Amino acid sequence: MTDSDDALLPLDAVRPPASSKDTKGAPAPAPERPVARVAVDSPLPHLDRPFDYLVPDSMHETAGPGVRVRVRFAGKLVDGFLLERVDESDHDGRLMPLERVVSPERVLTPEIAGLARAVADRYAGTLTDVLRLAVPPRHAKAESEEPAKQDLPPAEPSQTESAWNAYPTGPSFLGALRDGRAPRAVWSALPGARGWAGATAEAVRATLDGGRGAVVVVPDGKDVALADGEFARVLGPGRHVALTADLGPAERYRRWLKVLRGQVRAVVGTRAAMFAPVADLGLVAIWDDGDDLHAERLAPYPHAREVLGLRAHRTGAAMLIGGYARTAEATQLVASGWARPIVAARTMIRGLGPRVRPAGEDAELAKDQAARQARLPSLAWRALRHGLDSGPVLVQVPRRGYLPALACRHCRTPARCALPPTRPPTRPPTRRTALPPDPHAGTAFPIPEAPAEAGHLCHGPLALRGGHAAPYCRWCGRVDADWRCSSCGSPRLRAVVTGARRTAEELGRAFPSVPVRTSGRDGVLATVPATRALVVATPGAEPVAEGGYAAAVLLDGWALLGRADLRAGEEAVRRWMNAAALLRPAAELVVLGDAALPAVQALLRWDPVTHAERELGDRAELGFPPAVRMATLTGVASAVRQMLDEVRLPPDAEVLGPVPVDEAGQERAMIRVRRSGGAALAAALKGASGVRAARKTPDVVKVSVDPLDLI
After folding, report:
1. CB under 8 Å to 72, separation ≥6 — which residues?
2. Of 250, 442, 471, 685, which has the fewest beta carbons less than 10 angstroms from its beta carbon?
3. What is the mean pLDDT of the segment spanning 410-431?
4. How far apart are CA 330 and CA 342, in angstroms?
5. What is the helix, strand, coil percentage profile of the chain, to 5?
6. What span, in angstroms and rounded, lies between the C-alpha atoms of 566 and 631?
7. What gap in Å lies between CA 485 and CA 530, rounded to an integer?
């Protein structure tokens, strides 16, 4: 038979007989759906898509959607997730086979895979980066353990009055959850240390009674512990799990598997819990959404509130955004009609709230002329003394440490480190020249030439760790015992900012018979007893006092309100209200701030809603988030400007900058679009990042969509 005759035969006549491997040694494909689409673990944005692999017949039973696999990619063995299996591939060439199935456990559910894709598109990131956040690392021993059988008795009905009865629309919200509907609410919680956790547990129980699951995200481990206890009381033991990073890899993975396998349907945890694989999700809730701990530090930097909002939208679940204060983003959801407010009556708020007194009011200044300059005026001292007669008192200090900022006592020049850097430069510093004018920046600005000796000094800010310690540099960490002011030559220092440890030391001398407890970065206290004590804490680390605090003083209001931050006022109200909510009803609260400021007025009236609405209006007028969508590009000056030149932005995009940032040689540009153009902006930035990655450009440009730190 000639070659021409052979070409006329049917395909089956010339196909080699079936065998376990073909002539080239390739394995036989699976009998059904032999093509696997795999999300390969690659951080490169231009490779952010599924790749097709052949499923060998030997892996037909174990290679299911959602399992971890190992594949050969670009000549290397890499990890991946099997997204789905299909009958045919769009690839014309020969498919590489799967190397192996790491585990038959289907750890990536279709709902979480779709959510991860949506989050990556929302934040101009890659699916791989989001999956690293969504699926915890495998722990083989925990995965191989047989799941314990649980015969849980029916949950007992609650014997106490519902906390939601204090809100006019609270009972209807719970009723909608029990009926399996999807209400969306922004909840302004009443003051009370444990009230929010109990009310949230009731909402979760109503969801479970409706036959659906729930995910609750809180800022930190202290809040998880508080919510965990309330969930056990309201739901009953064994009906929920708490997920935190400090559990350890084995226990965390073991609890996560209980959720994946459907053994529990309620989850409370920190921001990683936003991706918990709860089946038939009926409620997502976030407490204190203004806390910056809800913002992920790893690419693509998603925020838990936005991820949960996407999840509620995709699954048809209810959403609850709660807090003592209210963010502009939550107010935007209410203004758009996407969510409804849950607010208590004013009479109820006045009955449970503290008595707030600003230290700068005219009557107090008339009694104490030195109160304007004093760090603790007489009003604050009286509140501390009277409060200690009946229990613990709280002192909130915005700054941690002892004396975190110093200056020359004679001329007030900030104290800077005069020591050489720990690693001196390998070549003499070169003269910096101004970059050429940039069409996106408007006008060019000259870069001043640094003095020749400036490159050989650290110039970090000096601080003190204790009353008898020498000043040390907060950048290089070394002690500068021979410091002298660079302006006047004086060796004497004064405090610019007083930290929590120095405050505790001063209060201990003022009240020698009262124990002083501190709570901050070095050690966070969860609770304190109801006995008399001075509790000095930084914002977010305030422990819960049994029965509530008898009084509180909020120090250094200027430190919170004077920050160069878009959210300075909003953040001050949030931190103050979180501390004020720990007090007993009608307890005295002294805030060191000007009573005429909007943030102080919001605390005085306990009216975070009006303050948030005003904040949102001001941002809309000025063109700041959440009224618009913004993205930042940060990196080497030349790389940022090159990316701005190449990216195809939406027609209505506005470019601000680039301008220098704190890091040497780094610049940042901001891009602003209307809210409706957010998806187009994210797609454009991701495409530009992909082009740079494909070119193997050495300088990395950090892309952040809707970051918290704009200013």
Report:
1. 78, 96, 99
2. 442
3. 70
4. 12
5. 35, 20, 45
6. 15
7. 47
CA 519 to chain centre: 21
Is 535:231 a contact under the CB 8 Å cutoff?
no
Q: For residue 106, with 0-12 CB atoms within 10 Å meaning exposed, 13-18 middle and 19 or more buried, which class applies?
A: middle
Are 499 and 400 within 8 A, CB to CB?
yes
Q: What is the helix (H) or strand (E) element at residue 328, kind and residue range?
A: helix 328-335
Tell me if 127 sits within 8 A of 48, measured CB to CB: yes
Cα 381 to its chain centre, rounded Å, is 36
CB 504 within 8 A of CB 510: no
Instruction: Indicate the length of the chain as a whole number.
Output: 711
474-479 average pLDDT score: 86
CB 204 within 8 A of CB 214: yes
Question: What confidence tier does 447 reach under pLDDT thresholds 50, 70, 90?
Answer: very low
7 has pLDDT over 90: no
Would the CA dihedral through 678, 681, 685, 688 be positive or negative? positive
Token pair listed for 247: 């559990």
> For residues 326 and 344, what is the distance between their CA atoms, to the nearest angstrom?
14
Determine the Cα–Cα distance for residues 707 and 711; give it in Å rounded to an integer.
10
**SS3 assignment, position 380:** helix
**Measured between alpha carbons, how far is 63 from 103 in angstroms, rounded to an integer?**
9
**Strand ranges inside 409-521, DSSP E:** 462-463, 472-473, 493-497, 516-519
Considering only CA atoms, which of 652, 654, 632, 651 is closest in space to residue 643? 632
CA distance 71 to 97: 8
| 3-class SS of residue 637 | helix
**For strand 527-528 and strand 628-636, is the pairing parallel, antiparallel, or unpaired?**
unpaired
Contact yes or no for 228/216 (Cβ under 8 A): no
Close Cβ partners of 509 (under 8 Å, ≥ 6 residues apart): none
How many whole angstroms separate alpha carbon 267 and alpha carbon 111?
16
Cα–Cα distance, 75 to 623 (Å, whole number): 48
Task: Tell me the three state secondary structure of residue 346.
Answer: helix
Residue 122 has pLDDT above 80, yes or no: yes
SS3 402: coil
Q: Is the pLDDT of residue 410 over 90?
A: no
What DSSP string runs through 250-280?
HHHHHHHHHHHTTS--EEEESGGGGG---SS
Closest CA to 563 of 398, 699, 325, 444: 398
DSSP 357: E
Measured in whole angstroms, the distance separating CA 508 from the mean position of its chain's CA atoms is: 35
In whole angstroms, give the CA distance from residue 190 to residue 324: 7
Per the confidence metrics, is the pTM higher than 0.85?
Answer: yes
- The 3-class secondary structure across 108-175, one letter per residue, is CCHHHHHHHHHHHHHCCCCHHHHHHHHCCCCCHHHHHCCCCCCCCCCCCCCCCCCHHHHCCCHHHHHH
Average of pLDDT values for 406-426?
79
